[in-house]
Predict the 3D structure of the following.
Amino acid sequence: MSLPPTQPLTVLKPADFASDQEVRWCPGCGDYAILAQMKKVCAKLGMDRSKTVFVSGIGCSSRFPYYMNTYGFHSIHGRAPTFATGLKLARPDLNVWMVTGDGDALSIGGNHFMHLVRRNVDIKVLLFNNRIYGLTKGQYSPTSEHGKKTKSTPMGAPEYPIRPISIAIGAEASFAARAIDVDMKHLEYVLERAAAHKGTAFVEIYQNCNIFNDGAYDYAVDKSTRSDNVVYLEHGKPLIFGKENSKGIRLHALTPEVVDTKIVSADDLLIHDEKAPEPSLAFLLSRMRYPDFPEPLGVFRAVDHEAYGDTVRQQNRDAIAGQGEGDLQSLLNGEETWSVS
Amino acid sequence: MPIIGNGALADCGAIPAKSKADATAGLTRSPSVSRKLQIANRKWIYMSAITNDLNSTVRRPSKPVTTLPSVTVRFAGDSGDGMQLAGTQFTDTSALFGNDISTLPDFPAEIRAPAGTLAGVSGFQIHFSSTDIYTPGDDLDALVAMNPAALKTNLRSLKSGGILMVNEDAFAAADLRKAGYDISPLEDASLGGYRLIRVPINKLTAAAAKDSGLGAKDIDRCKNMFALGLVYWLYGRPLEPTLQYIEQKFAKKPAVAGANALALKAGYHFGETAELFSEQYQVPKAKLPPGNYRKITGNEATALGMIAASKLADKQLVYCSYPITPASDILHQLSAAKNFNVITFQAEDEIAAIGAAIGAGFGGALGATGTSGPGIALKSEAIGLAVMTELPVVIVDVQRGGPSTGLPTKTEQSDLLQVLFGRNGECPVPVIAAASPADCFAAVIEAFTIATKYMTPVIFLSDGYVANGAEPWLVPDVSKLARITIAHPTEKNSDKGFMPYQRDENLARPWALPGTPGLEHRIGGLEKQDVTGNVNYEPANHEHMVRLRAAKVAGIQPAGPGMLHTGPDQGDVLLIGWGGTHGAIKAATLELQQQGVRASACHLRYLNPLPRELGQLIKNFKHVLIPELNLGQLRMLLRDRYLVDAKGLNKVKGQPFTIHEIVEGAQALLHGNVSAYEVNAPTNDVVPAGPPGATID
């Protein structure tokens, strides 16, 4: 298809990525911080507004596209991966981002999420994980803690939660990362890394729902506790955390353990390798959970896999190279025709 | 011994001079055909080829030949017996020969039901004719039964006095037991009303292919070719198309090719030499309109129509589907069309399939998805999103017997109300139904034309009968097909910026593509403010938008014939139908006219919106009869729309109507033999007795 030439290059500011629509999240919602960082990254990376599309499902997070002055598609519950996949298949030139939540991606949309990641469609996925259903006013979600009391579980959630990054890695994610809504600098870094990845870039963002699940991530946010409860992942570096870097993670057989860095040398600590061909390490990291472990933030895994659409289009090119461009009349005639005079 | 494989085929094909002579008589191969195939359509040519090939020293005289206007044959056997292949080959050969054809494949849902059982019977019916035909035929002139189960399930379709060819080698005690026979029907008098021909097909196939190099088990699998060869002889058909097919199909397995060719020829030769038949039959070529023809099934025509639409619109086709019977063949066909730059996406489920199709449409491609009734149920929410976002997408529903998993391989027309109304909210969607296998081509192009012109999802209805049935198709000249013109805006359409829900004269909103600078906008499933497309919950706006969406669909002008009419536009009875029943209703109407009834038929290709002229037409008839393969879905619709006391003729057996059933139904209606809604006892079975006072409705 033919498209008009792109606009002359102008330097856009974060505000240029804001639509004219009033943002309607609850005051104090963590989504505001993510929206601000996203606009900042769009501006910083010089994204073309006309070539950028935000696709979402249903939920508080999924209102996101309305607030971006790009193309946007607010679809139906859990199905955002399907619309995004079709869009990217038809339009490989577009920069497609998907915004979803823990209920949207992991409950009603769990199947689509798995297959999006498995196919490695070239889409950036932001999962706002607030461990609660916000838009429907406070039921437990697939990431809510076991025993959590909510409107639909007055005696405590009888289910065990799943961990979004574990699911993504189980589905062969080529990129998986985690950030926190209020840790602006680090969120910006993770979004930039996602933007640069070719293939499905999955980002879990810890997001506070200050109405229905306030303080869910205090352990990871509160200045007095957070250094003990999170560990920042850096490729090729040992896992060190705690006040004054006093603690580290060491691997004991297949089990991580917290050790004192005054006793254990850095060489003996677990060294992060986001490019490891096998995702075992990334999976192991995704299992580390407060309060037994610090929860890793940053890029768990970033490997090169051919993106789905590239393979599909290459097959078409190969077919055309091999058979020649299809001729409709010959196709309609088929292999056997007869004429009547 | 005869030469087998390529050598033998070369012998058979070595008759170019005669074939060229035939070409001038009207039957030629298209010059565009790459595959060189010489059709010898004069009996003596292939007869001599066969006899030469079999190295026979004696040329036997042909038996007397009787000319028939049309014949219906059914091959029936176990689902492992290769009946679908035998039937398809007979169809191809008859089409190439120049007959009009119509077919009815009928197979079980199980890939391989227990061998020899009634549930495992697979059949393929072919109606071939020297005149125009509209259905696969009511009753059989000849039945090939490869085992007792096939005999038992198919015998009732055979005409009294019809030819009944049975494989007597498959009538051992165990085979009989599986089919529920206490005594072999070959031994008692039960088949006395037919021309029973007992053929030891297993033994003769084994003897014919004993030197092929194959084991006994593999040779046994060639018995369908023996049966086919015998039927070819009976109806004077050439062997060459099937020999060519065998050669190509088993190019890498020459022993298999050789055994199959030997079995085919042996069957043919057996007909000639055995004293079982006193005569042969021939069905001359049909007088079809001049042009270039091929055989086509509904699913093939649907796939070709989609590719054609993509070319005519100069847009990429993105076909997204989850495998489901009987729609999967469309996915297979399109997956093989990569050199047309078609993208196929085998989705993880039905919802993903339509989601991706809508996403592709948002991006500016021709998005389409294909499924059957259960898949439509799953896609309903997404269809609603396409209605709300007003994006073009084509949804193919190849209907099958329902509800639930139902009868996956059998035909039914019971999704009409589902596709019209099976969504939340006021959610109008245009619906187009193909009238025949070949009509799928034009109808699916129309679906894309409407979808892109009016910015709406369009549902295209096919059914198992249309999808798997075959007929001759006058191949269109591509240069004469109407282009699908699509314009995408590149400029803002208002002083205030781009208004994604501003409408044109068709009430369609602009199809602005991502990637177009300055037209950035957001769409979604929440109610839209008129013109701006912003999220809006105001009461007056919602009602306005609901009515606007309804008005847009109601105002759609058909992109092809909205309805097909047979007979005068007034009379005593109007038969109204839709979908795959077109042929049977048309043929029944013509028969009623011959009986002196003032009958006409009206076939609806557009079910939403209904053709505007329908209301007046209905008023011109004393009675309206609506034959449907459901319990009266169109009838309910038309009774509501036109306040007409239409009666139904309803059948839900997984099988199409016979012409006879419809003629009887119309006669019953004219003679007052009706209940409140339905013509009484349209068929000879059984309506289960409900509680006292219960009615079907």
User: Anything to note?
Assistant: Chain A touches chain B through 69 residues (CB under 8 Å). Residues 51 and 94 of chain A are 5 Å apart (CA to CA).
